[in-house]
Amino acid sequence: MKIAFIGAGSMAEAIMAGLLKQQICTKEDITVTNKQDQQRLENLESKYGVATLEDKETVVKNADVIFLAMKPKDAKDGIQAIKSYVTKEQLIVSVLAGISTEVIQDLFEQELRVIRSMPNTSAAIGLSATAIAKGSFATESDLALVQSLFSAIGLCTIVEEDQLHAVTGVSGSGPAYIYYIAEAMEKAALAQGLDMDVAKKLVSQTLIGAAHMLQETHKDAEVLRKEVTSPGGTTQRGITLLEERKVSEAFESCIEGATERSREMGEEMAEKLKEKASK
């Protein structure tokens, strides 16, 4: 299976590194191109041994799977540069945030097999939470293949395309919420007299441990919380204060707002791309 990356940013690198590390493919199977940053291509070639080319025709025509990994704002120009070389036999995998499979098909002016994805930045260490959805012409076999590819960089689940907005609000933006919690806990630890290096170690390990408990015990978060919350104890006092400050409701608003913003951005991006295409 030959894989082409159109775009060579951090997400493209994370996916590429995961595929190679998990031996899903070899370095000879991967080719990368980008808009104009030759130095970036040389760095990737040196680091991973993959082929990097400026000749987009060669990159695309030799590929079975094409990852669209450019920045969303560059989608129209990026697709314009390759669309005459793409055929219906090739599978398109989009990592373009906010751009629907329908818009992608419109830009290619073909009824292509498109799978849309929403990874997160933890892909950089092989721990992404990714969701994928298929476009109108993609098959279940296409979904299964792409799920196996993204499983090389973490967890990958299948959803309906409209649900990707909620996925963005939960796991796409999710790492930032956890970093926000870590910041708050570190700040509170400092206020209670702990040194910053100690606070950082304790907070990060606490988050790692809690995440592993969720995954390995298969217990609901509520059950695990109640198991460590003794009546009248220290944890109960802390939880009560969080409830008084409506932290749970704040998280609901946070995810609702991020989900809605994802929808807005998708609509805005679709309008901009249509405007460019009509000019």
From TrEMBL:
Reaction(s) this enzyme catalyzes, per UniProt: L-proline + NADP(+) = (S)-1-pyrroline-5-carboxylate + NADPH + 2 H(+); L-proline + NAD(+) = (S)-1-pyrroline-5-carboxylate + NADH + 2 H(+)
Location of region: Disordered: 258-279
Coiled coil ranges: 27-54
Upper classification of the organism: Bacteria, Bacillati, Bacillota, Bacilli, Bacillales
Keywords: Amino-acid biosynthesis, Coiled coil, Cytoplasm, NADP, Oxidoreductase, Proline biosynthesis
Cellular localization per UniProt: Cytoplasm
NCBIfam families per the UniProt record, alphabetical: proC (TIGR00112)
Function recorded in the entry: Catalyzes the reduction of 1-pyrroline-5-carboxylate (PCA) to L-proline.
Domain Pyrroline-5-carboxylate reductase catalytic N-terminal span(s) in chain numbering: 2-98
Protein's name according to its UniProt entry: Pyrroline-5-carboxylate reductase
Leader sequence residues: none
InterPro entries hit by this protein: 6-PGluconate_DH-like_C_sf, NAD(P)-bd_dom_sf, P5C_Rdtase_cat_N, P5CR-like_CS, P5CR_dimer, Pyrroline-COOH_reductase
GO cellular component: cytoplasm
Molecular function via GO: pyrroline-5-carboxylate reductase activity
Amino acids binding NADP(+): 6-11, 69-72
Annotated EC: 1.5.1.2
